[in-house]
Structures are given as structure tokens and as C-alpha cells.
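Re: the 431-residue chain
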Amino acid sequence: MKRMRTIQPKWINIPDVVLIEVFKYLTDSERAKAALVCENWSRIFHSPCLWRFRTFEMGGYKAQIYGMRACKFAENFGRFLKYLVISCSHPSYHTCKLFQKSIDELFATLREAETQLYEFELCRLELERYWKYDTPREKLISIFSKFLKTQKRMLCFDMSSAQLPAYGGCRVLDAIAHQSGSSIQDMLMEDFFHSRLAVHQVQKFHKVIGKFTNLKYLSLNYNCLSDEILEIFTKSLQRKLHFLNIKVFRFDPHFHRISGLAWKQFAQSCPCLRVAFWFESVGMHEAIAPILVKEAPVKDIHIWSGYDDDLDWRLSDTIDHITNTYANMIESVSFELDNTQEIIDQPLLHLVSKCKKLKELSVNAMVSIKTVEDICEMLREKTIDLTMLHVTFCGISSQLVSEEELEHMRRHYSQILQERGTDFRLHRFDF
């Protein structure tokens, strides 16, 4: 009987699609070495899909070295690049100018390569905080504007925490809108302008923001909004915008009011709109309640009271206001009130029992263990339908709750809530 010869698989027979997947797991240097194996692998090395995504670290004292590496990549593969993330970690007064020069060289190289991005991300530039001198700051704004003006089909733009001045920020936005105003779907500009600016009063911002006509996701600060801005959105984003995330920050102007009529018209023009409010270092009832008007389609609310103690925040009144205003629509609530001594047991129970669409509840505050037990019992009896319940006992309440009691509650309710599909967590926080 003739023995059959075993055919050994050979790398040369591997299909391109499989080989490309292998190359995706390699570092740049490993890919370069693999490209020397044969002509076929060298061809695979130059496959555009291997070079679509790139993150450049360009901050710190090695900004110049990082910039040279980034420029080298841009020379070789810039024409393939579609998703660009730039990190400016650990900025300081001493490294800002280095960063500005590196960005200038990188963007010049990308323009020469005719790079067309789908996504651009540069978070935490923090011009207000670290950029001591106006000249490199103004040069950087010019560099961004010149490059972004060449982008024709951008889908996502993220420069959150850039802290740009009013004119400079509007200039950057105008550059993006020049050719990508009708294509961008996601725009993250939380803290895009520096604090203390009443951006909603800047006429240039009114003109620029209306040029973005295809937004589905928008994140920005409350000081960028007004009746007039919502009217612009009502016309330019009709039936387009799905999510609006609004940050209300202590040092931003936030005592102007948006009318219920403006919210109502905006909500009617974007029927799928979901609004989320993030209050940071804002706890006073008279500051929060007037912002949360019933006509706004608010689904998510997060309140972090910050670090400063204030005994007159009237947090119970704020929680009652949320309950009474959004009982039929609120889906996610988070309270980080770990620096207060105000007990919120009754308003919290009232919120949980009345807000039938509430799915996620996270509480870091003065609550009693009995209140949490009552919420767990409501879940067990299926009178509420939370998918997430996170509670951290802090202040005096953490001193009154022992780890043994928490462990007993976990054992008693974990299996029941797991069967209900509820993410259940209990913690203590002692100052």
C-alpha cells in the first residue's frame, strides 16, 4: 500500500487577507522586519488598511523626538491615515513651544501627503492652563486652522479640554466647517473654550455653529447654549441630532436661562434627541433647578458637588425637582455628594419609586442602609426596573454601616438582583 505524503502548509500559500490580519498584531518595527522576508510580504507591508489608525504621543520633554517619529510616519503612510489621535500628556510651560513646533511639522507633512481624516482627536490641550505666552498659542491655533481647513470628509472631531480663547476657538471651528461642516456627525467640544467665557454671546460662534448640519452627537458646555443657539440647532440639525451632552461647570457662566419654548421647539425638530446634564462643582439648588426645565428631553443627570463644603445646597430639593420634572423620561441618575452632610434618604426613595423609566442609579452620598434595603426590596418585588445600582456610603452614614452589614446585604440580594440583570455594588467611603 502506497503511503500518502503529508503536505506541509507553507507561509507562501497564506491568503493576503489572513496575512494582513497577522501584520495587524505586529509593531511597526516587527512589520518592517517582516517586509524583508519576500516581495509578497513587502507588498502586504504597504497595505493601506495597516496604517489607517495612528496615535502620536507628542508632549513632554521628548516632544521633538516624538515629532520626528510622527513626521517620518506621515511621509511614508500619511496618504493612508484616516483616524488620528494626538496626545499632549504632561504639558508644561517649558514643553509647549516644542509641542507647537512638532505639530507644525507634522501637519505640514500630512498636507503634503494629502491626508484626508475621518476622525481627529486631541484631548486635554489645556491652552488656558499651561500656555503662558500668547505667541505659541496663536501660532498653534493658526496651525490647526490651516490643516483642518483641508479636511473634506471628517466624521468625528474631538478637542475636548482644549480651553481655546473665544476668537481662536471660533476660528478652528470655522476651519473644520469649511469643507466638513456637512459631514461631521460626532463633535466633542466639552471645555473647548476656556472657562469664564460667555460663548453664547459671541456672534462669531452663532455663525460658525450653524454650519454643522449633520451632527448626531454633540458635547459642549452650558455657556455655549442660549435660546438663540437652540434656535440655530432647530433649523440646522432638524431630525439629525440624537444626543446632546451638556456640562455645567462652576467657573463657567451658568446663570443665564434657556426658555422652555426654545427647548420645546428644539425637541420637536429632533424627535430622537437625548439630553444629558453633567453638573461639576455645582450643588446649589437655585443654580441647578432653573436649568432643568421640563421641556428639555433630559434622560441623564449627573451631579458632582465638588470639594467645597456648603451646608445650604438643599440637595433634597434638587432631587425632588428632578423627580417632579422628569418622572416620565429620566433613565440615568448619578449623585456624587461625598463632601456634604445632608441626608437624602426620602427624596432618593421618592425618585426611585416615581421615575418608572429609571435604569441606572449611582449614589455616593449620605444615605442609610435601610434606604438601600428598601430599593433592593422594590427590585425584588419588580416594582422598579433598575439595571444598575451602585451605592457608596460616605460621611456619617459610612461610620454607621459596618463591612459585616454590607457583606450581609450583598449575600442577601446579589443572587436575586443578578437574576434580574441588575449590576449591584455597595461600598463604604471613610474620610
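The first strand starts at residue 53 and ends at 57.
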